[in-house]
Design brief:
This protein is α/β, with parallel strands linked by helices. The chain has helices at about 30-35, 75-90, 100-110, 130-135, 195-200, 205-215, 215-220, 220-225, 230-245; strands spanning about 15-20, 40-45, 60, 95-100, 115-130, 145-160, 165-170, 175-180, 185.
């Protein structure tokens, strides 16, 4: 990355977070938001917590999870969640950041389509900003090529009508997108901390997908592999946070 991050100094905001699993929390963003004095309300949808009145919030962040967006029979609250995302983006028109499942939910809620990948993408991979991504406010100050941490078996296969691809790689052609002018989805994980892999590996579905994608030996070493990339990943998250808050 180049230059200085956008100025994130602003009045304290109210941030609404949709969470689908306790270990898939906002990660390093919790540190940024706490330091800036923002108020964060986490809604644990998988635990049956209701979605509050959204009109008092300034930013919505939607995290990842082990479920797929089409599993609405098993997780009926996904329908309610997508309706809330649709209202937030299309009616209230306020800033949105979705990561992994949150990225896919944004696509489906906005009229796009998500489907299963031929081969899951797990581990540290390269991704590249598109020409539109290089001009986008969320990726202001980034070099075109970056390393990213992946852990997903589904992907956005059709963009919403007003969607724009901002980043891509050979495994997944929609690594990041913008819907409208202030809703962003990022397929790769930018919230990583030193404890993330250990926390996620304790979830049976995640452990199985990791071993299937990487093999047993590489899966065992994933935490060590990630550690060397954490400073760069933290810098990516810090800049995205600053750019996002500048939009807010």
């Amino acid at each position: 990355m180049k230059g200085r991050p956008a100025n994130s100094e602003s009045q304290a905001m109210r941030i609404l977070v949709f969470q689908h699993l306790a270990v898939e929390h906002p990660g390093i963003f919790r540190e940024f938001w706490r330091a800036d004095g923002h108020q964060v309300q986490i809604v644990a949808l998988d635990e049956g917590e209701p979605i509050p009145d959204m009109t008092d919030f300034d930013l919505m962040a939607v995290m990842g999870g082990p479920m797929d967006i089409w599993e609405t029979d098993t997780y009926p609250w996904l329908v309610t969640e997508m309706a809330a995302i649709r209202r937030w983006v299309q009616v209230l028109r306020r800033p949105y950041l979705g990561i992994c499942l949150g990225h896919q939910l944004l696509a489906e809620a906005s009229g796009g389509q998500v489907g299963r990948m031929a081969t899951p993408e797990v581990g540290v991979t390269a991704t590249t900003l598109t020409p539109e991504g290089r001009r986008d406010r969320l990726f202001s100050g980034f070099e075109p090529d970056l390393q990213a941490f992946q852990w997903h078996g589904a992907e956005v296969q059709r963009l919403p009508e007003d969607g724009v691809v901002l980043a891509a790689n050979a495994a997944c052609p929609v690594q990041a997108m913008r819907v409208g002018d202030r809703a962003w989805g990022i397929q790769f994980h930018i919230e990583m901390t030193s404890s993330t892999v250990a926390e996620w590996s304790a979830v049976p579905e995640y452990a199985a997908s990791m071993e299937a994608a990487l093999g047993v030996e590489r899966a065992k070493g994933l935490e060590t592999e990630l550690a060397g990339h954490l400073p760069a990943f933290s810098a990516i998250a810090r800049r995205i946070n600053a750019n996002l808050l500048a939009v807010c």
